[in-house]
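Suppose a classmate hands you a notebook page containing two proteins, each written out with its sequence and a corresponding row of structure tokens. How would you begin to make sense of it? This section walks through that situation. The first entry is reproduced here exactly as it would appear on such a page.
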Amino acid sequence: ETAPALEPEALQRQKIKGGYFNTLRQPKIVLSSLLMGSVTSVIYLFSTFAPFLAIEEMGLSPEDYGLLNTLPPLGLIAGSLMTHWLALYREKLWVIRLGGGLSFFCSVGMLALFAAGKLSPITLFLPIPLLYFGTALIYNNASSFAMEHMKDKSNGSAIMGCLNIFFAASSVFLAQSIASPSSFLLPLSFMTLSLLSLLLLRSVSRLG
């Protein structure tokens, strides 16, 4: 109803496949989607492994865990608000770089605390809002950056969503495939994903 003109060929299989392949040949969209996937992976991994660390290794009750788990979304909310404010003064790639650096700093600090034997609800939950704050800066700007470079936004958004979820699901699968995961797995995964996001950003920046 909202289309300015009917395009019967738009639903043809070859037309759709061609649109997907054309989108995949646009490196800015692919790299931006992988950036989003690195952020989504952080959230998925925390949601997967944090309950086992908190309840089984730290002895928290499910009620206490549920209460503490209200803290991480505060970082996402604050990061989204900060993204809106920074958009008035800074370029998207600068904000993504800020988010990646902040996420890397938080993950390194969390890993150092765990390595020092300070495994507690404080060291598990306190860095996460700040980590989520950084990931929100990355996700919001990476998605809008990708949309800016989409000629075919319908196919582009489909590819973007597919790569995002595929990356996140693959990260969780790889983490769960480790035979004897330790408490270091979570912060080490965060650090790896944060470093990867900075490398992806560097590749995007080189494209101009």
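The notebook's second entry, a different protein, reads as follows.
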Amino acid sequence: LKAKISGKHDDSGHAAGLAAGAAVVAAGGSAEDAAKAAADAAMKAGASREEAAEAAGEAAGAAVVANGGSQSDASKAAAEAAKANGGSSKAQAEAAGAAVESAGGTAEEAGAAAAAAAIAGGASASEAQEAAGKAAGAAIVSQGGSAADAARSAGLAAANAGASDADAAAIAGEAAGVAASEAAKDAGKGEGDSGHAAGLAAGAAVVAA
């Protein structure tokens, strides 16, 4: 689910990258080695440079955690690895948020880490707010949470990053839509059904906000 949360990932490439990075970590490799292996494997499996960079960042973050590093260290390593492998501020933010969540952080912490990484990577304030919401929503989905929970966390994370009520509601709606779509796919429903569910969840989230 985490690999799919953006709705744009080549899932097989992202998964291949994470698996390769995990293998390096298991063998005692460094965060840099894990990141390189993840990026290379993701690209070979058909991922874009942006997707490969995010996988590299997540792998680096996982390596830091495996070696006893903190959530903060994992987030920083993830963002740096994503950047080093050609990722945009968006990829850096997504990798940082995912690293914090994987390290046991809350959705709120993942959102804050994503926002910080986005800003550090040159993103605008609005882009950082969107990154915060996306990371928080992704954390909830990866933990098996509902679309409503994803929306609530995404909206809160976006607000914490400085988003207005209206912008936070829009970000919450997007997170709900992604979560509902993923839930429908996991349940084996057709694309039409998942799109319908996503639309309903997104609308409900905005109304609730």
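A careful reader of the second entry would note: The first helix runs from residue 11 to 26.
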